[in-house]
Structures are given as C-alpha cells and as structure tokens.
Design brief:
The chain is α/β, with parallel strands linked by helices and 530 residues long. The protein is 32% helix and 23% strand. The protein has 13 helices and 19 strands.
Length: 530
C-alpha cells in the first residue's frame, strides 16, 4: 500500500481517537453532584414553583444567566436599550376575571364562594336588573314555565334540572329517564330559551350544598381557566351570551326576598305538577363580571458559544426553565423533574463545552444554549423564539431538547438505565444514527422509542419545545424519561431525583451535540415522517 495513503489513514484514525478522547474528557465534568448542586436552587421553595413570569421564574433566569456568563457564553439578545442580554424578553397576554360580584340590597356576595359562573360572562360595569322566578326555566310541549310571564329586559332565576315527582319519574316525559333539560349542559338550553324570551341574564339555583357544592365550585374554577389561557398576541373576546350565574339557594332566596324554605316549597309544588305561585317571586339584583387583560412579562435565557471554522451553522440545546407555580391551596409545585432536570442539564452541558473551548477544543459549529419559558402554558417560549430567532433558522442544524429526565416511569421501575428518544428520525436519518452511535460508544442505555410511534396516544412529540423547531423543518431529538405520580404535583421535589441515572443521559446529549457540532458535514434533512 502507498506510504502516503497509510500515513493519511493513520492521521485520520489518530485524529478520531483524540476527538473521542476529548469528548470523554469534557463529558466527565458532568456529574451527579453538580446536577444536584444546581437543582437544589432551581427547584427550591424560595422560587415558588417558577410559574411563567413570576418572581421565582425570574430568579431562575438570573441564576442560569450568571452561570452562562461565568462560562464565557455570549449574550446575543437585545435588551431594548442597545446592549446585549442573556434574556430574550417577550410578553404573554392573559384574559381573566377582575372584579366579579353579585350585590343584593347593597351587600356584595363573592365569586367562587357564594356563586360561580357558567360560560363566559362579561359585564364590565355594575348592572342592575329586575329579577323574576321562572320555575325551572323550561318550555317543552305542554309544559311551560314562561306562560303568562313577562321577562323582557329582566333577569330570570330558575331551578337547576327539571321537575321530578316523588316516584322518581320526570314530569316532562313520565319516565325515569332524564330529558335534555337535565345534565351538565342543560343550563345552555335554559339560557338560550330565556334570551329568546327577552331576558337579559340568567341566574340558576344549584341543587348542590355543603361539600358537594364546594367541590363543584372548585371544579368550575379549574374549568374556567380555559377562558384565562395566555396567548402570544392580544385577543378580543366575543362572549356569545350563553352564560349564567349559579347561586347557592340561600343567596337566591335573599335575592327574591323570601326564605330558603319557601323557595324549596315552591320547587316541591312544581315537582308535584302545580304552578310555583299565583304571583311570581321578584326582586332586584346588581352584579358585575369584569374581564381584564393581564400582561405577563417573561423571558427565554440564551447563551451563545461561537464556533470555529463552521461558526455560521448553529446547534440549539434546549429545555424549559419554568413550571406551574403555586396550587390554589397554597402548595408549591417545585418542578424538580419538570423541567428542573432539563434546566440544570443545559447548565452542565454548557460548562462542559466551555471547558473544551478554554482548552482550545471549542466546537466547530456554534451552539446556542436555550432555556425557554411558557412551555406549560402552550410552548410559548420556543414558539416565540422560532418566530423571532436570535440566529437564522436556516443555519440551525438541529435542536436537542431535554424535558423530564430525572425520574423513572412505571414501565421502567426495575430498569432505570433508559431514556425515551423522540423525534430523532422524523426529519433526519443521520441524526437518528448519530444518536444511536453515541449511546453505543459511551452510555449503553436503553433507547426506548415507544413514544416515537406516531400511533402512540400520548403524542409527546407534539408536547415539548422541540416541536416548534420541527415545525420549521429543523431536525430534533426530545429526551424524556416519562411521567410519574408527581407529575404537575407538589411531590416533584429534588429528593426524588435520581442524579446517578440522570447524569449519563446528560452525557448522551453532550456526546450527540459534540458530534453534531464537530462533524465535517451538516446533517441532512432527508426524512419526513409523522
């Protein structure tokens, strides 16, 4: 064989060996002890669950920024004053209820205590109307609670459900089967009918009381959050008028200037087939349900490491910084695994690359270490970045995203040496191969592709921040170890994180990133799988 060829092969093998040795050397700086050192801060009670835009989330952003600076990473976001920052600031817009009350004879009654709301109610200024009792608020066949009743321009107050005799049969159909006037959505039928009759608002008297009512109010409060979901852009709500106030019987009786017992007797008489009263009960009520726009100021944290000869191309390594904050009952959700584990992994990977760069072994391609926010609210931070990139998306070769890698799920409770790999083959067959080879050479964990199956009902591929890169045709890998009993609960604490299990996964991400950042050719986008 030609001596020059032999020399070339020897040089290539030697270079490869050194490259592998370099990767191993710097990967060793990623330790369980260091991961824990960072996580006890990120997931501490003092950060109060790092809810998006909260003081705790901002403390976490400051913590990560401090370490990015100490590693020599460059700030590349605009701080709005002509200087560069590690913080890519953006706004979320949240519609929620402001001042909400019912007032009877000057006395205010409290929202989600004395009453709750069905549907989206918007009454920005205090409004006062006459109120008239309209039985169950039903018109169906020969049964008509509105017969000879003038409700035009007034509010109506009606009983929940439909009349039912002592033998258990419903008056409307004479059977034991409910009609459309009973059930979870029957209130909508009643509101539509009342509005068609000329009523302005509808008040419903609930059948529930005690703990059952308290539970219902809590559930309704949670359901109402769908009307308070944040968005990246301001929205104008369009209430369709299908809404109601739901009152405790005692409050309804006060409104109608009667007693709870008399109100109960009226209902019993209707159930027996009699009319409620010869003269409907009436009253007056004032109320307000103001919808307000709240601006949530938050920020992604981005640290940039410039590459050498291929610096125009960039690899993104991402995780989400925030969590869900404090529960309604005051419990803190520290989110040690979700996604404190990903956050501190980014910090450790950044340190490993910074040590390499300090030794003259920096990556050929640039790397952006990106801790986003708003993931729990709707992947907003990564969406904002994908629409307002700090570096051109056309030059972004891949995103390696880490979300929940500190625990084990039920399927792997007896074998913790695993990680779910999601998305690696969706856009690039080369990325999948690089991931497999890195694991085989360095880690030898089980790479579980269960959730990579497009038929998997969990659809995790669409549920973390990598997806906003995938939508831009950028190859991705999502590293994940599954949900557990403390998912989105106060029990997701540092004490339960398996750092010895986590550290090898973080090294796997590092080794994969090392190859992506240093290989000769940029990986190809050659797959288009679901």
């Amino acid at each position: 064989m030609n001596k020059n060829i032999l020399a070339g092969i020897f040089l290539m093998l030697t270079t490869l060996s050194y490259a592998q040795d370099d990767a191993t050397k710097y990967a060793e700086s990623i330790t369980p002890q260091d991961l824990k050192k960072h996580l006890v801060i990120i997931a501490s009670d003092s950060l109060e669950g790092r809810d998006t835009g909260s003081p705790g989330q901002k403390k976490a952003a400051e913590y990560v920024s401090k370490y990015f600076k100490s590693y020599g990473l460059q700030p590349i976001a605009d701080n709005g004053e002509g200087a560069k920052s590690y913080l890519q600031k953006y706004k979320l817009y949240k519609r929620s209820y402001g001042d909400v009350y019912v007032k009877i004879e000057g006395k205010k009654y409290s929202f989600n205590k004395d009453f709750y709301l069905n549907g989206l109610v918007s009454v920005p200024k205090e409004t006062e109307t006459a109120v008239v009792l309209a039985g169950y608020g039903i018109e169906d066949g020969t049964y008509n609670d509105y017969a000879n009743l003038d409700v035009n321009g007034k509010s109506v107050i009606v009983f929940e459900g439909e009349p039912r005799a002592e033998d258990g049969k419903y008056l409307l159909n004479g059977t034991m089967e409910k009609t459309k006037w009973s059930g979870p959505l029957s209130w909508q039928q009643k509101v539509k009918l009342a509005v068609a009759k000329g009523a302005k608002y509808v008040f419903i008297i609930t059948d529930k009381s005690g703990e059952d009512l308290d539970k219902e109010i809590r559930q309704r409060s949670v359901m109402a959050r769908r009307f308070s979901s944040p968005t990246l852009k301001p929205v104008q709500e369009s209430p369709n008028g299908i809404a109601s106030f739901v009152l405790k019987p005692e409050l309804a009786a006060s409104l109608l200037k009667t007693s709870s017992q008399k109100l109960s007797n009226i209902k019993s008489n209707i159930d027996k087939g009699s009319k409620s009263t010869s003269k409907p009960l009436t009253g007056n009520v004032a109320f307000k349900a103001d919808r307000i726009t709240e601006i949530v100021n938050t920020e992604n944290v981005a640290g940039f490491m410039e590459g050498t000869d291929k610096k125009d191309e960039v690899l993104v390594i991402s995780a989400h910084l925030d969590h869900i904050g404090i529960s309604a009952n005051g419990e803190i959700n520290n989110g040690a695994d979700d996604d404190g584990s990903g956050t501190v992994s980014i910090v450790e990977i950044a340190e490993a690359f910074s040590k390499a760069k300090a030794d003259g072994k920096g990556p050929r391609r640039s790397i952006l270490f990106l801790n986003v926010t708003g993931e729990e609210k709707g992947l907003f931070g990564s969406e904002y970045y994908s629409e307002n990139p700090l570096l051109p998306l056309a030059n972004t070769i891949a995103d390696l995203n880490i979300d929940m890698i500190g625990r084990v799920d039920e399927a792997h409770k007896n074998d913790p040496k695993y990680v779910y790999v999601i998305g690696a083959d969706k856009l690039s067959s080369e990325l999948h191969g690089i991931s497999e080879e890195a694991n085989k050479k360095y880690i030898n964990y089980k790479l579980d592709y269960t959730f990579n199956d497009p038929k998997d009902p969990n659809r995790f591929y669409y549920r973390s921040d990598h997806y906003n890169f995938a939508k831009k045709n950028i190859p991705v890998i999502f590293y994940f170890t599954g949900v557990h009993e403390d998912y989105h609960r106060p029990g997701d604490d540092v004490e339960k994180i398996m750092f010895d299990k986590q550290a090898p996964i973080v090294k796997l991400v590092f080794y994969t990133a090392w190859e992506l950042a240093n290989r000769e050719e940029r990986i190809k986008v050659d797959s288009h799988k679901e």
